[in-house]
Amino acid sequence: MKVEITINGRPVAGEVDERTLLLEFVRDVAGLTGARNGCLEARCGCCSVLLDGQVVKSCNVLAAQADGREVETVEGLATGDTTTIEDPTTEGSVGTYVPLSARGVDEGSLHPLQQAFHERGALQCGYCTAGMLLTLKEFLARVPDPTEAEVREALRGNLCRCTGYQSIVDAALLAAERMRG
Amino acid sequence: MSVAADRATGESLIGRSLPRREDLALLTGTAVFVDDMRPAGLLHARILRSPHAHARIRRIDLEPARRLPGVVDVFCGADVERSVEPWGDLTQDILTGDRIAFARDKAVYQGQEVAVAVAETKWQAEDAIEAIEVDYEPLEPLVDPEQAMQPDAPVIQDGVDYEGGVGNAYDASYRIRVGDFEFARDEADVVVRARFTTGCSGAAALEPHACLADYNPSSGKLTFHSATQMVHPLRDGLSKALHLPRTQVRVVAPFVGGGFGSKGDVFPWEVITAVASIRTGRPVRCVLSRREVFETVPGRGRQVRYAELAMRADGTITAYGERVIFACGGVSAWGNQILRIGTQIGMLPYAIPNIHVDGFAVHTNTGPAGPVRGFGVPEAIFAKEQLVDMAATELGLDPVEVRLRNVLHGDDCPTVTPLGQRVDSTSIDRCLERAAEAIDRSEAEDVGVGFAVCMKYTSARHPSLDSDLASVRIVLETDGTVSVFSGDSPHGQGHGTTVAQVVADALGVGVEKVRVTSSDTETCPFSLGTWGSRGGAILGTAARMAAERVRAKLIELAAHILETAPEELEVAEDRVRFVGMPGTGLFIQNLVLLAAYATHQLPEGFEPGPIQAQATYDTPTERERSDGTGNLSPTYSAAAHAARVEVDRETGRWRVLDYVMAHDTGVIINPLIVEGQHQGAFLHGYAMVFGEEVRWGEDGAVANAGFKEYFAPSAADLPSLHPTIEVPAPSTVIPGGQKGAGESATAPVAATIANALQAATGVRFCSLPIMPDDVKRALVESERRGAPIVYPRDMPDYDGPTEWPEPEEFDDLELID
Amino acid sequence: MRPFEYLTPAGLEEALEAVAERPEETAPIAGGQSLLLELKSRERAPARLVSLAGVEALGAVSGGHGEIRVGPTVTYRAIADGEAFAAIASRSAVTGFLTRVIANIADRAVRTMATVGGAACQAEPAFDIPVALTVVDAGFEVAGASGTRRVAAHEFFRGVKQTALEQGELLSAIVVPDPAGSWRWGFAKQGMRAHDAALSSVALAVRVDGESRVECCRIVVGGAVKRPSRAYGCETWLIGRPIGEVEAEKLGERLAAEVVPELGGARFGREYRRSLLPALVRRALEEARDEG
Ligand SMILES: Cc1cc2nc3c(=O)[nH]c(=O)nc-3n(C[C@H](O)[C@H](O)[C@H](O)COP(=O)(O)OP(=O)(O)OC[C@H]3O[C@@H](n4cnc5c(N)ncnc54)[C@H](O)[C@@H]3O)c2cc1C
Ligand code: FES
Ligand code: FES
């Protein structure tokens, strides 16, 4: 079937199998691999994206359900353009670091949440990060001045196995403070 | 932010909380993990797994699958019998032969590989494995390790001969014999004993295990991307299993989404995916489902400990004895290594003079056991640190005082324990004092405070793997930037930042000049991998050594050009300059250019071309001796934890009100990263108590193979954490003073919380996890009896063994070296 | 997942036709939060999915005549954020109660998609919606080829994943009585983690007279039982007592004695689920007293 979804402001259309999940559409059709498969059972939150501004687990939504709607992924968070790294086969993991400027992103163009995550060490392997960022973005839009307990509650559908969560919670509070101005 | 600017002030880069250089790609979603790669012509592999925990495989019919649309290849064990050989002996001395691609005649755990389908789409591959027909004859599964050890139990790996094995106890030879245990026990003022069990918590890294094999039929070369913690051992394991020369196999780990031990092995699906690519001549990817991860990826494995501790009236621990039974699942992964190292290191931070341990690594019809954060130390500490409290209670002593009396003291270091562990430095005594100061010990209803202490090895020489090394190669580029090729395989530890800091510091250049590449067998020198708290100390030392070699070359060259003595020169500000004189000397860039493009200007004997060096650091450690003694680790990090826990008597739920961690991590290169390691390590310790446990039913089927019922805690289920109290006692063995960071905060957590729960309720919880229904049941029972109980032993429906096993006689098995 | 056809009817008629055509091979999909889990694990493999999301009539909320009609495809999010009930009597106690219950189900991302009707039709014992809808005495409008019928909550929920819906029928509205007067509601559940579904849950509804005595009440238990279960004995016991003076402990003991848990999970057994009931009914009672 034909599905068209506006992703990060750009319409993406594809002729896809009905079974295609929104996660698969975003990754395989739109080529944006920031949303990740951590369980495919709606439990880990690695696949979280915003659908019409509301957070969803894209592994538990059909692309067909999102047809004609707007999706925001982690790639849409920073204001600068981010480019995917083309040739991973020649790079080791830590070698794929490219300076901010080379990606058309400087620190100023990162979203305050991204910036705070970076400063507070709120990511290690980074597999959960995209989902955390989008969940928090939607949450802070609703609750701009949360308590630590509220942040923890807001993240109850997102697992992280690396950080023990404290740095993520701290980063969320820091970003909230900056976003309130 | 340019970190180079600060170099003018001469400030060291060691000890600076630089935000990580890995972050940007991860924060913007552009980092590439195995599942993100998009090679042309990619095929998808799905593996058919045994639904039975123990079954003969009578017949496999692949034909119905082969006929389905989009299916490119389908094969099973019989098809690769001649082309794939068993593996596992590279990293383990017991010549196993039980690590195989597919179960052939018999499946020995639920989820074992039986066949694979390779297709154009994931759905087609999934349809294809459903169409495969397998005729199983179910056999009786052995789930309980103690039952599996009974003399009449059928032998699970009946076709393999294990040296040092007896029946299903494939390694029955582990012994510690120090001092005179029985005499010390008889002499002691109090002896406490209990049977402890720990559950199989999984690592549950969020990236499911994934690999992508790309065999080029014209060159005969296999490029293999995998979410692995060890590219070189994987390359060697794959080559061996596939009969390929190592030159023809390249293993690369792109970004890896966590491992915690669970990605450090050569796995059947990796071998299968490689074979699939060789057979089809196309790239093939296999990504495990979450269910497959829980069924087949090694978790901690269940351990049973019959443990006893003897104490003098003054609180001195005089003896410790254990019989340890470790359920290792159907095949032997790292099981016996975990048993040995975990138990030995678990005796610390005490210098116990009399120790008697009998340990057994046992096959069961369950998924394999393997390393998960802590490598057996948390399990050992869970038992021992509770026994310390039990003895202290009997003697009316304070748990902190008793521990202070027994822990190694920094002032006595270096010191060698009766177990042969040479502890170069420690601050565990001060950590304990600091933790005790920081926790609120006031009394309140249903609230208790508990303590536990531990030491953790900083990398280790395994009893079977006689190597404990890491390697780094550094190349100076002609623009003055620095390429670092690091042998280890990080997956969240921030090596790209930490190693850059070490190298930049040693070369006097800005961190942004340094680029670290790792996890690629073709460009990076051989290393063991990233596990065992090795990064900062072992890899960091290799990086420092390589950088110092490069620095010596730079200084030699600069001294020649500047016509001065090398001693007059130092590196700083991207230059080789006169000592203490900013702005003098030559830019490193110019020296490198000279070596590359103006070779006639080089001093005599100076090797022209790129200025580079490679260094390997192998720790000055010993192999385990037959009596269990030996110094397995170059240095030991330490932790003292304290918890204040509240119990809700109505629901049995417990809640950590406050948690204090005081650590000795030696010299810390990047405090931001190390704090993250501690807090993450805490999570894995907490999870063991909270409720993480893979559970097998009596039929050997996993009862909770998904996050719905595998209770991984979220942020809302974890307490707030304060910054760790660091009391650094720099290592005197590791040149930079570092100690391992990744696991020391896992080891004491379960014991700390269990001790606090005992203080709150009077119940001694001897089984992990400690879930609300356990607590509720125990509280009801102790109320009924009007006395504190030991859970689960004092429960009416307790069905565990009641007889205390006799210590094994000294036999000649252990003389095998 | 196995292949399926995906239909997007725009009206109720069309939807009913689509569902009725090959009823045994068809599944309606509302938010998909439960259905997709079953499709991915291949527990179910319908050949056609009929999306209800585009059927406007199924997503409407209206009030009047002492009742509130909630369209089955109204999402948890719309309710939790106060959008769904914004147009109708804003001070209604029953909408406040449902909002409190729903805002605490699963996590935000699931609540974005999940619908009240989907949860009702899925009818899993651990879910909060069946318990909450039973305690408010909701009626269920079921539309089929032969017209629409109305089913009371205690008839609608029949067992584990079993409802009064016949193949080819759709749940077309949930009718929640919005009684004037002094009804108060409370709900409490206990799961393992913050976002887990209930091992046991208790919902309570009481109406008090001028002297704050319980005139009429319903107590419903979920989680541990196959379908929402009324505790009639406890209800009788409660009647006539001043709401402020009810001894929660006694009520709890009675509830634990009256309800026979039918379900134990892979981990938490029936006895434990039963032992939670006193604490839960006390919390529900406190909520009913405090929040009204
Ligand atoms: C991760 C996760 C955690 C959860 N935790 C909780 C929890 O803690 N507590 C809790 O109560 N719930 C929980 N849920 C369940 C959630 O409440 C339900 O999944 C959800 O409400 C179902 O609604 P839906 O619209 O998504 O239903 P769908 O999945 O679309 O449908 C469910 C079923 O109902 C049928 N159906 C839907 N609408 C109709 C209709 N109008 N007429 C006839 N049949 C229909 C479908 O065919 C399907 O069989 C959780 C779900 C997830 C994914
Ligand atoms: S992948 Fe979607 S929630 Fe885990
Ligand atoms: S950073 Fe690894 S899972 Fe969160």
Q: How would you describe this structure in keywords?
A:
heterotrimer, A: 181 residues, alpha+beta, Ubiquitin-like (UB roll), DNA polymerase, domain 1, 5-stranded mixed β-sheet, 5 helices, 5 strands, C: 292 residues, 5-stranded antiparallel β-sheet, 4-stranded antiparallel β-sheet, 12 helices, 14 strands, 33% helix, binds flavin-adenine dinucleotide, binds FE2/S2 (inorganic) cluster
Outline the structure in words:
The complex is a heterotrimer of chains A (181), B (817) and C (292). Chain A has helices spanning 22-29, 112-120, 129-142, 148-154, 166-180, and strands spanning 2-7, 10-15, 48-51, 54-57, 70-72. Chain A is α+β, with helices and mostly antiparallel strands. Chain A folds into two domains: 2-76, Ubiquitin-like (UB roll) (Roll), CATH 3.10.20; 106-180, Orthogonal Bundle (DNA polymerase, domain 1). In chain A, helix 2 (112-120) crosses helix 5 (166-180). The longest helix of chain A is centred in the last third of the chain and has 15 residues, at 166-180. Chain A is globular, with a radius of gyration of 16 Å. The relative contact order of chain A is 0.15. Chain B is α+β, with helices and mostly antiparallel strands and 817 residues long. Chain B starts with 22 loop residues before the first helix and ends in a 26-residue tail after the last strand. Helices cover 33% and strands 25% of the residues of chain C. Chain C is built from twelve helices and 14 strands. In chain C, the strands form four sheets. In chain C, strands 4-5-10-6-7 form a five-stranded antiparallel beta sheet. In chain C, helix 9 (232-238) packs antiparallel against helix 10 and helix 10 crosses helix 12 (277-291). The longest helix of chain C is centred in the last third of the chain and has 15 residues, at 277-291. Classes of the chains: A alpha+beta (181), B alpha+beta (817), C alpha+beta (292). Chains in contact: A-B, A-C, B-C. The interface between A and B is large, with 74 and 81 residues. Bound molecules: flavin-adenine dinucleotide (FAD) and FE2/S2 (inorganic) cluster (2 copies). Residues 37-40, 42-47, 57, 59 of chain A line the site of one FE2/S2 (inorganic) cluster (FES).
